[in-house]
Design a protein that fits this description.
The chain is α+β, with helices and mostly antiparallel strands. It is built from 11 helices and 11 strands. The termini are far apart.
């Protein structure tokens, strides 16, 4: 298959660079950073002194790791989503995301290949310097600001997710359904807690759908953000745009601030975003309204984790008492 890959990659690189490209040498190996879809690292020697380090991401359902395929909600899957995001949405804004060198689709063979720049940055969750997290929050505010005034252009895209009322309700329905299938004292307590929450959740849906929309990553967790120090500053490069869509930008901020920081640090991180938003898009929401809206988005994230799959626990970096936090937020928001 390497010969086929070489032919496809030569064609895509020729298109990217605007001139015929021949690959002198191509080596490939599985990436150790694979979390869901199959990922390979490609070393490409073009023979004219240029060497490229690329990532080949296979976006087909069958390429998912077996354990991931067992729990990933199928309704989220769209192999075109990341292709369109990298090619049509991220490339024009040039905010440091990975360069897209091309793609290859053969639907009958369930083959959806995406060729991306390999980023040598460090995952944000491994970085303890709080100032860098604040810089990422400011970057996120600028990113959302770039799209806020033009979000209508994405409404006709069938590939992007819609963070609308049906989307929010679906996660709670899934969480309640999974709870009903389990038994035992703790499970019964969870079932009762989710039933209590379900009776009050429509208020949260109304508030979430009333928030201003923009283009969002959807899973802006620290494990999905690479940070790279460069001569001109820090490069922020989110990866894994599998749940990207149109929705409240604060959902991304809620994901970013869901780590192990103290409440004071989470607030400081949120304020970095808020202050940057005031600069980039003349944010008119007062601080209390902003923090309340953020709590509603945090509530959505807790419900999404609870509704991800039955008898399932999030990865270690996302492990948390999500039900306990959901109840805490519901009470805080007076649902």
């Amino acid at each position: 298959m390497t010969d086929e890959l070489r032919t496809i990659l030569e064609r895509e690189l020729s298109h990217y660079f605007g001139s015929s490209q021949k690959i002198k040498q191509l080596s490939r190996r599985p990436s150790e950073y694979r979390t869901s879809f199959a990922i390979e690292e490609l070393a490409v020697d073009l023979g004219d002194g240029r060497q490229l380090q690329l990532i080949l991401k296979d976006l087909s359902w069958h390429s998912l790791a077996e354990d991931v395929r067992q729990v990933k909600p199928y309704f989220l899957h769209n192999p075109w989503r990341e292709i369109i995001v990298y090619r049509e949405i991220l490339a024009p804004v040039q905010m440091g995301t990975a360069r897209c060198y091309g793609f290859f689709v053969n639907a009958p063979r369930d083959r959806y290949w995406l060729f991306l720049e390999k980023i040598s940055g460090q995952e944000l969750y491994q970085i303890g310097e709080f100032e860098k997290w604040q810089a990422v929050a400011r970057w996120l505010a600028e990113f959302h600001g770039r799209f806020a005034a033009h979000v209508d252009q994405f409404n006709n895209s069938r590939s992007l997710l819609r963070y609308d009322g049906a989307f929010y309700r679906r996660w709670l329905q899934r969480a309640c359904s999974f709870a009903k299938c389990n038994d035992g004292p703790q499970k019964r307590n969870a079932k009762a807690a989710l039933a209590w929450l379900a009776a009050r959740y429509e208020k949260a849906v109304e508030r979430l759908t009333a928030l201003p929309s923009t283009f969002i990553h959807g899973e802006f967790y620290a494990s999905n953000v690479l940070v790279q120090d460069e001569n001109h500053g820090m490069r922020v490069c989110p990866v894994d745009w599998e749940m990207t869509g149109v929705g409240p930008g604060l959902i991304d901020l809620a994901a970013l601030t869901s780590g192990k920081w103290s409440e004071e640090q989470k607030t400081a991180l949120s304020l970095s975003y808020y202050d940057a938003r005031k600069t980039t898009v003349c944010e008119s929401t007062n601080l209390n309204e902003f923090l309340t809206a953020l709590d509603y988005c945090r509530l959505h994230i807790t419900i999404q984790w609870l509704g991800w799959a039955p008898n399932w626990s999030p990865p270690v970096e996302n492990a948390h008492d999500w039900l306990g936090e959901a109840l805490h937020l519901a009470e805080k928001l007076a649902l």
